[in-house]
Amino acid sequence: MELCIDRLTKQYGHKLAVDRVDLELHRGVYGLLGANGAGKTTLMRMICDILTPTSGEIRYNGQEIGSLGEDYRSRLGYLPQDFGYYPEFTAEKFLLYLAALKGLGKLQAMQKMLELLDLVGLAEERKRKIRTFSGGMKQRLGIAQALLNDPEILILDEPTAGLDPKERVRFRNLISACARDRIVLLSTHIVSDVEYIAGEILVMKEGRLIHRGAPDVITREIEGKVWECQVDSDRAEELCSQYNVGNLKNAGDKTIVRIIGDKKPGEGAVPAQPTLEDLYLYYFQEEER
Amino acid sequence: MIRLIGFEFGKILKRKIVLAAFIMLAVFGIMLYMGDGPQGVISRLPDGTYIGGKEAIAYDKQVAAEYEGILTVEKARSILERFAPGTPDGGLWTINSIYRAVQNFFGNLDGSWNGLTVEEAFPDYQGEKPLILGYTDGYTGFIMMGMYLMVTLGFVLITALSPVFSEEYSRRTDALILTARYGKSRCSRAKVLAAFLFTLLTVGVCLLVMSVLFLAGFGLTGGDSSIQLNSRDLLYALPYFMTCLEAAGSCLVLWLAGALILTALTLMLSALCRTPFLTLVTALTLYLLPMLGPSLHIPRGLLSLTPFWCFLSEWTLTFPKLFGGEFSWIWIPALLAAVLIPLVLYLGRRVFARHQAG
Questions:
Q1: Residue among B7, B173, B358 whose CB faces A100 most closely
Q2: Does A82 touch chain B (CB under 8 A)?
Q3: Region of residue B108 (left: phi > 0; alpha: psi -120 to 50; beta: else)
Q4: What is the sign of the dihedral through the CA atoms of A253, A256, A257 and A262?
Q5: Which residues of chain A are in CATH 3.40.50.300 domains?
Q6: DSSP annotation string for A177-195
Q7: Cα→Cα distances B345→A149, B173, B181, B258, B349, Å
Q8: Phi-psi bin for A37: left (phi > 0), alpha (psi -120 to 50), beta?
């Protein structure tokens, strides 16, 4: 099971949305991190064969995905960012419709629909129209539809958007459980979503894949670039305006400031153990500001 | 595939706007039926009493039966004289179906004969057989109502079918569909087939209900009479021999062809446009624009292929026959419709499958 992305490029006018991305994906969970406009969604759409690359190609088990056609799509599950639905459909009908599109038989579709609605905690709501669902419920339904055909390749674009913390934990466990025998690529802004479950983190910036590796390996790259210092509130404000600051934590009348930067921010600063969030901030703080 | 067609058909049918369009069509149909149906028939008996509805139809049929057969100028004059002003039978406004028909072509305003022969009264007629006089009100009423009902039905079809593809784009469900196994193949075929099924059922039900109502009201009487000889100025310029029954049948072919062409056009626009509203506006424009065709001197042959003029079948039926009178023009739009169905199946799939989702 190998998904191979070879010099994949997507250009809109003069803007390169995805710039010569090379990637090989095998079984496991891949977390795709990047700021808005980094090219994550464009990359995912090309992997799903709903967006034609300007150049480069994607091969699955050695064959170009366009030529695989139905065979490739039968192995694919996709949850787009802000996924579309039919408000007048019930959850049950929505899944049965997509099951028919995915080529599941009537009986198999019914069984899978019940199983997945139960898995995402919507079994009781299956007769309700989707328009009455909360954002989190819709997102769970979206996750269920992506799993309908037991896909070998699961592409999830911002799957945890709209989920509350409890639902996010549930989702992480669900992905961990089903990632054993498939390729899961999920993009998110919420670093903690991938920190625990992703075997490999892919960092995208300005259309290019700038980093990849296991979470503990790539965080090592910024070792010595994360600092903590305990200062009064005036100094904390000063540091915030001067440095790339992560967390601020109150400790009595002092504030603990976590700073990400190449240089030591001051005398009182001590090196801290970097996390994935620090890595994200290290690369994207300027863009997020 | 059948399951997919069922889902797609349900998606078309369950939109609230479609329900509203059907209600409007039904209201308009009832209004048309009140005018063109049996209730709209009024006749005057020899004693000056006015009668309406079924009673008037029975009386008109009885009078028409006395004059049924080949139209001669003598027969026309005899009808004019019998019902002419000043005779015991009444005056100019003494009306019955056959009098109204004859008066249209052979009468002056005072009810006297205008002096025209059959050939002069029907200058466009080049048929080999003589024109046949008979009771035509049922058939002409059916054709009149059918034409306007079909023009209205055109709006219903456009409203219902505009979202077939474009709503998937605007709702962003295209990404889910196009990444599913059959999303780029069977799904678009199911959409196209469901749309044509919707059209066939809608047109079929409308025409069936209308036929049953007219059959119950007027019966089949007059089916072998010439359609040109009627009181509504309908098809008077038809250049060849055609019975009322043939005219009704030809209209059914044209109406169905028009509906299928309109469906094909709307589906193609739906696959190409990014929103249902844009599809709706474009389809409506293309549907109504040919109305201006005759005044813009656009070739009639081309206009006859447009849904609007197929629905106004009276206009298209007056085209001369092709291939030495063997082939009626109505089969040209029918042929076009038959070609468009597989073409839309192919092009719809191609456009939808290549759509760049997102």
A1: B7
A2: yes
A3: beta
A4: positive
A5: 3-220
A6: HH-TTSEEEEEES-HHHHH
A7: 27, 20, 18, 18, 6
A8: left
Residue among B172, B175, B180 whose CB faces A102 most closely = B180
Nearest neighbour of A103 by CB, restricted to B171, B177, B182 = B182
In 3D, which of A218, A179, A255, A261 has the Cα closest to residue A33? A218
Single-letter amino acid, residue B323: F
Instruction: Tokens for A204, please give them.
Output: 């995208």
**CATH number at A3-220:** 3.40.50.300
CB burial readout A104-114, b (16+ within 10 A) else e: beeeebeebbe
The pair phi, psi for residue B230, each rounded to 5°, is: -140, 170
B7 chain-A contacts, CB cut-off 8 A:
97, 100
Give the mean pLDDT of A81-97: 91
Contact call for residues B51 and B78 (beta carbons, < 8 A): no
Question: Residue B130, CB half-sphere, CA atoms under 13 Å: how many?
Answer: 11
Phi, psi of A189 (to 5 degrees): -95, -20
> pTM for the full model?
0.83
Record the tokens describing residue A172, joined without a space: 């992480």
- DSSP class of B68: -
Closest CA to A239 of A271, A219, A261, A272: A261
Let me know: does A151 contact A77? Beta carbons within 8 Å.
Answer: yes
Kindly provide the ipTM of the predicted complex, given to two decimals.
0.80
Residue A191 makes CB contacts below 8 A (sequence gap 6+) with A33, A275, A276, A277, A280
Task: Report yes or no: B38 and B218 within 8 Å, Cβ to Cβ.
Answer: yes
State pLDDT tens for residues B163-187: 999 999 999 899 999 999 998 989 9
- Secondary structure tally for chain B: helices H, strands E: 16, 4
Longest dimension (CA), chain A: 69
Tell me the one-letter amino acid at A160: T
CB neighbour list of residue B236: distance below 8 Å, 6 or more residues apart: B104, B105, B122, B228, B230
Cβ neighbours of residue B310 under 8 Å, at least 6 residues apart?
B254, B255, B257, B258, B261, B304, B316, B333
Kindly give the parts of chain B with pLDDT less than 50. 88, 90
Residue A289 pLDDT greater than 50, yes or no: no
Q: What is the largest CA-CA distance in chain B?
A: 82
What the block records as the tokens of A141 is: 């339904």
Residue B272, by phi and psi: left (phi above 0), alpha (psi -120 to 50) or beta? alpha
From chain B residues 274-303, the ones with a CB under 8 A of any chain A CB are none
